[in-house]
Every structure is written in C-alpha cells, then in structure tokens.
Design goal:
The chain has 354 residues and is an alpha/beta fold. The protein has a single domain (3-350), classed as L-arginine/glycine Amidinotransferase, Chain A (5-stranded Propeller), CATH 3.75.10. It has helices spanning 33-36, 40-55, 76-86, 103-106, 127-130, 137-148, 176-179, 190-201, 247-258, 311-319, 333-336, and strands spanning 3-5, 22-28, 68-73, 92-95, 109-112, 118-124, 152-158, 165-166, 171-175, 205-209, 227-230, 233-238, 269-274, 295-296, 300-305, 326-331, 347-350. Strand 8 (165-166) and strand 9 form a beta hairpin. GO terms for molecular function: agmatine deiminase activity; protein-arginine deiminase activity. Keywords: Hydrolase. One of its GO terms (biological process) is putrescine biosynthetic process.
Length: 354
C-alpha cells in the first residue's frame, strides 16, 4: 500500500456521484454490546434488511443483482455470526477492528484517478469533534485500502464522509456547522477547506449551508439535510406539522439552496420531500431522523423509515427521482439510536471502467 500526503493545492481526479455504478458497498457488522446494549439484536435486524436491499437477490434464481457486500467483522466469532445472517447474499468478510458501524465517517472514501485506477482518500478522524473516541476507528480507512491494495491519499484535515455531498459534475455541498466547527479544524479558513474539498473530491465549486438537524451529534452532516439526486437537482425535507422540531432549519436550508448555482452555472432545482417530523427515543429525546439518509445502490435506493406516518409518502417521493431503480423503505429507528441511518453506515466503491 502506497501512502501519499497531499496539500490542498494538488488537484486529483474525482469521487463519482453515488448514482454511478458501484463495484461494492462497504459496511461494518453491528457487534458492540456495550454500545447498543439491549438493542443490538434489533440493530442487526435492520442492518440485515439494508444489506438484503443492497444485494437485491433475484427471487427466481437467488443470484445477486445488486453490488457486492464487503463487511467488516471484529473477529472469527463475529464473522460466523454475520455469515449466519448474511451468507446467502454472497458477501466478503474482513476481520478489521472498528469502534462502531459508521463506515462512511471512519472508512476510506474512494476516488478515481486520471488513469482510471482506484485510490483511497483518508482524512483525520477525531470522533465527531472528540465526542466518541472508539478503539479501532482511526485504522479502518488504511486497512480498507490495504485490502484492496490501492494507493492511500492522506489529507491532514479533520473530515467525515457524511459531511460532503457531491454531484459528480464539480459541485460539493457541506455545512459550516461541521467543517468550520472549532472541534474539527480550528485554524482552517473556509477558503482553505474549499481547496481541500476541490483536491480530494475533484470539485470546482463548494456550496455552504449553515447548520443541520436538532440533536445531530455529527454537527450538521450534509447527508441528513440535502442530497443530490442528479446534477443540479437537490432534495430537501419539508415539515408537515407545526411541531416539527426542525421546521425553522429546514425552511432555511431550502431557501438558501434555492439561491445557489452549481459549478456548471445552473441554478439549483430544489425538490421537497416530507420530513418524518418529531421522532423520539424511548426516553423522549428528539432524534435527528431524516429520510435523506438513503443509500443509492446499483439496483435499489434504500430509504430509512422511523415509524412516522410520512414513511410511505417519503419513500414514494424519493423513488420518483430514481426511475431505473427500485426504491425500498427499511426500518432504521434502532440504528438511529447511534446517531445516524443507512447512508452513515455505507460506503460505495465505484466500478473502474477501462
């Protein structure tokens, strides 16, 4: 494995949009009883439903129509447990220590180089602003690139994968609450971080929103508040009731995006889907629930649902933007207890085209 450290001024190729074809999807099998406590079995059940939707087995032949699953497990016992639940999906298992399942934030981000080869991007990771420091998380990205034997490109800045959303045509979305937070990059300026994003993700223009959802311990990750579904088209959520805890911020996000143009000079086309509304844990605490934390797989789009009366409406609304994929709603409220949903626990590996 080759390690390269880049300054923000170095321009590489880019990270493809998520709707481009994938070779595989990387995930980490829920394993830590001390974190999930009595919800671990329920979290595993939701994880398995997500994996089944991504693998998308043909009901007639049993063959996988979707992308390959690359699943991290802690040890041989964890591998056996995961295989008992997922073995018919033809996954590949990798014994790699990890702190928890949030692979988009702790894992490698895959970049396609100018010579059409794959590289793995790695940033600093500090537990979402030093909130959750878990053993193993810092090493996951490097070990993923080692498994694939691809170059590892290191950027000496703190950034999680869920903090950046790209359209594949030169535009990135992010938030000031996250990237400019003193708990991430206290000395970095907005202009400096834009250079980092241009170099790492291959974008020409960075669009900044201000803040994210209530009680989001990621400090405003973009993948819960605004998602590209095509170049120039962004999905946002719209509150359905007056007691939606994010009503004010959702209105601000839609308004701000409607005034922005992308790297190609197009005014963004903002499309609205329902917000799930007020979703609480069993202690009555408001959770950062978002339908936008969906994962775009090769043959499906997997949308997290939370037992809200707007679940079916949101799944149908998102499906309209992916006519060539099957859009599936899967329960995610137990996974959300850890702070995120399906997009947070997946990382796509793009297909390298000759």
């Amino acid at each position: 494995m080759r390690l390269t450290t880049l300054s923000p001024d170095v321009t590489q190729a880019g990270v493809p949009a998520e709707w481009e074809p994938h070779e595989a999807c990387w995930l980490a099998f829920p394993s830590h009883e001390e974190l999930w406590e009595d919800r671990l079995d329920a979290v595993r059940q939701e994880f398995v439903e997500l994996c089944r939707a991504i693998a998308d087995l043909d009901p007639k032949t049993g063959k996988r129509r979707g992308e390959r699953l690359e699943i991290l497990v802690l040890d041989e016992a964890g591998k056996a447990e995961a295989r008992s639940l997922l073995g018919d999906l033809f996954p590949r298992f990798h014994i790699i220590p990890f702190g928890d399942i949030w692979l988009r934030d702790i894992g490698a981000i895959f970049q396609v180089q100018p010579d059409k080869t794959l590289a793995a991007i790695r940033f600093n990771f500090n537990g979402w602003g030093e909130k959750y420091i878990l053993s193993g998380d810092l090493e996951v990205a490097g070990k993923m690139s080692g498994i694939l034997d691809v170059p590892q490109i290191y950027f000496p800045y703190t950034l999680e994968g869920g903090a950046v959303e790209i359209d594949g045509e030169g535009t990135a979305l992010t938030t000031r609450e996250c990237l400019l937070n003193p708990n991430r990059n206290p000395q970095a300026t907005e202009a400096e971080l834009e250079k980092v994003l241009r170099s790492a993700f291959g974008v020409r223009k960075v669009l900044w929103l201000n803040r994210g959802l209530l009680n989001d311990h990621t400090d405003g990750h973009i993948d819960t508040i605004a998602r590209f579904v095509a170049p120039g088209t962004v999905l946002c959520m719209e509150p359905q009731t007056s007691d939606d805890p994010n009503a004010e911020v959702l209105a601000e996000i839609a308004k701000d995006l409607s005034q922005m143009t992308d790297a190609c000079g197009r005014q963004l086309d903002i499309k609205l889907i329902p917000s799930p509304g007020k979703i609480c844990d069993r202690d009555g605490q408001i959770m950062p629930a978002s339908y936008l934390n969906f994962y775009i797989a090769n043959t499906t789009v997997v949308v997290p649902t939370y037992g809200s009366k707007y679940d079916a409406q949101a799944v149908e609304a998102i499906g309209q933007f992916f006519p060539n994929r099957r859009t599936v709603g899967c329960p995610a409220k137990n996974i959300l207890l850890g702070g995120g949903a399906f997009h947070c626990i997946t990382q796509q590996q793009p297909i390298i085209k000759a």
